[in-house]
Design a protein that fits this description.
This protein is an alpha+beta fold. Helix content is 50%, strand content 15%.
Length: 222
Amino acid sequence: MAILGGDSYQWYLYQARQACALANARGQSGVLVKGAAFGVRAATSDKSACRLILKELGPRTVFSLPRAQVDALLKKSQRLDDEALRPDPKAKRLAARLARAEPKDFWSVVAALDWPKSSLDPAYPAIARAALRERLRAAELVRIAKAAARYRRELQKAVERLEKQAGDQLFLGGDDSFYDALAHAVSSGQRAFEAFVRKPESFVKKYNRAPVESENFESCFI
């Protein structure tokens, strides 16, 4: 089943018709939003419980819920057919690229994500989040997220120094737009990022002319 890759248990896939907050014994939490896909199977060790997994969070985040709560949720959810269980072609290609990437090499993971091009598809951020959680350990994701933020701040300082020298605000967007543009510049890869740091005026020119229209790059690590 696509939702869990090669997991040996039999999961059944549903689409939620209402929102539901989730939490598990490990302190992990999530929100089952309306319209989201989720998987359910019986708990082998406790007949009074069920296991639930959010497709967007990947197979390592499994929530154990009382059967009564799951039964109530399923009454307001739609069972998805076998066609919906087939892996998305983009998800398969991304999984293959991530399998070749080196998790300890931040720029290797960035190259595999191909964010500037792929994130133009509104569905891609969720695909990226699921693929990252399936392929990487939680500690690796945390390390990558911290690296993304560190590089973003490095470029931010370079742009702010340029603005200070000019005595004027050069990036014309607001704070949120600036944050998105900086993160997007990081997602462009090591070579492009280092060029922006060396010449922050090129960053200003590029992102003033072409504002970021996709979801913030760092959201795929959350």
